[in-house]
Please model this.
Amino acid sequence: MTFAQIGFGYWGPNLARNLGALAGQRFRYLVDLSPERREKAASLYPHVTITDDLDAALADVESVIIATPAATHAPLARKALEAGKNVFVEKPLALSTSDAVELASLSETLNKVLMVGHTFEFNPAVRAMKEILDAGDIGDVLYLHSQRLNLGRIQSDINAFWSIGPHDVSIANYLLGASPQWVSARGARYLNSSVEDVMFVTAGYPGGVLAHMHVSWLDPSKTRRTTVVGSKKMLVYDDMDADARLKIFDKGADRLDADAYGAYQYRLRDGAMHVPSLPMVEPLSTELRHFIECVDSGARPVVDGWNGVRTVAVLEAVDESLRQGGAQVDVLQVDGA
Ligand SMILES: NC(=O)c1ccc[n+]([C@@H]2O[C@H](COP(=O)([O-])OP(=O)(O)OC[C@H]3O[C@@H](n4cnc5c(N)ncnc54)[C@H](O)[C@@H]3O)[C@@H](O)[C@H]2O)c1
Model:
């Protein structure tokens, strides 16, 4: 199986580096419309054909990796699938649920692999959190909150939630094994009059679990943190803390019997903090290796097109809530595989 990558801008070089390491000579084409980016790619990948001619690449490879701006994902993925290619597409899968559903369905009809770049589902800390949750170690999940903040990279084509929020939605959906039933979103356009730079999104998951997601590219501190509060323990995943990316806190509030007046008392538990050791692997490498294995074996990726659809459905509901000034908006529930 041979591969072409489309898009070599800010993120594309990270994919190309891993694709080069994993696929070697099977990495055949790198397609970008920008002469400057093609020149940069040519200096790094002399054995790869660097071109702006997508049709030539599609005629010669079996699989493509798409790392272009979000608005191009659906048309490029559709073109590649219709040409009979397996497709890895960066998040978000599409800019509308209907486009995303069409792509997921097309990949099934044509029996081609469609995988979406939800990188954090391959992150060792996030996978460790999922194991801890599934084992019941933290009790019932009560709520979670995440912050994905930085000064930059400021975008003008999509708002901050479409840009970086897909990571938090995919992490929450993955950890909870469900899609939210509703969302409520507020945001503000401080830098650019057409897209929100700062957003606060609340998502309601089954069983009354709340997820609050704060994203911004106008913040003084680079923050990448997800906190999960359970009835027995609490988890903090801080991607900026290289020494302790994941912390497990034996903390909680236990309800005691009601007193003579019927009022409940609480005993606060402030126990030990444990830092599990995590494998030192680059999530992007694990992610691309999985895509290559699926392409080689025909297996369904763990982050398949329907997973991408469920994330896009949340993003679309967030847009609608923004338009309605923060109203609670139902999230379309999609029953794909
Ligand atoms: N998984 C992650 O952690 C992560 C991180 C950053 C970005 N991304 C995703 O990567 C994608 C690219 O983001 P970016 O920040 O690199 O964007 P970018 O604008 O820096 O780069 C996009 C590149 O695609 C090229 N391009 C645009 N349209 C094209 C077309 N039709 N055919 C060929 N080339 C085309 C542009 O010339 C440019 O070089 C986005 O979908 C983004 O969401 C993912």
Q: What stands out?
A: The chain has a mean pLDDT of 97. The chain is about 35% helix and 30% strand. The chain has two domains: 3-119+284-304, 121-280+313-330. The longest strand covers residues 218-230.
